[in-house]
Amino acid sequence: MARAYTNDLWGAAYLINGGASDDGFYYFRCWLLGLGRDAYEAAVADPDSLADVVDPDDGDLHEAETYGAARQAWMDVAGADEDDAYPEPREPEDLVGDEWDFDDEDEVRRRLPRLAAMYLEG
């Protein structure tokens, strides 16, 4: 999860999901881990590679479901139940990479050209 804590991946999440709060970006990274090692490594190296695995017609499906799987696995291993506190995720202190405006369509097209072609009009 920490390796995927980058500005460019947040920009991809923002574009794909039509926005991404702090929690939304966390859930997006859970979803990304659920895609498997090859897709994860490709996306960390080049977020625009997500164009190979997303479909704009799927809607907002690129989020939270995998988080629930991790919680269930923790409960199984720890012998915990629904009432036990699930450990809070630890985020790195700083996002990796330069900050940029996810609402600036020219910047999105420059940084994520394949995804922009899929999600932006014109």
What does it look like?
The mean pLDDT is 86. The chain has 6 helices and no strands. The chain has one domain (2-119). The protein is elongated, with a radius of gyration of 15 Å. The longest helix has 14 residues, at 65-78. With 122 residues, it is an all-alpha fold. Helix 5 packs across helix 6 (113-119).
Descriptive keywords:
single chain, 122 residues, mainly alpha
Concise synopsis of the structure shown:
With 122 residues, the protein is mainly alpha-helical. It contains 6 helices and no strands.
The helix content, as a percent range, equals 40-55%
Average pLDDT figure: 86
- Overall 3D geometry? elongated
Portion in strands: under 5%
Low-confidence stretches: none
Order of helices and strands: HHHHHH
Secondary-structure-derived class: mainly alpha
Number of strands: 0
Count the DSSP helices.
6
Largest sheet: none
**Gyration radius, in Å:** 15 Å
CA-CA gap between termini: 33 Å
State the domain count: 1
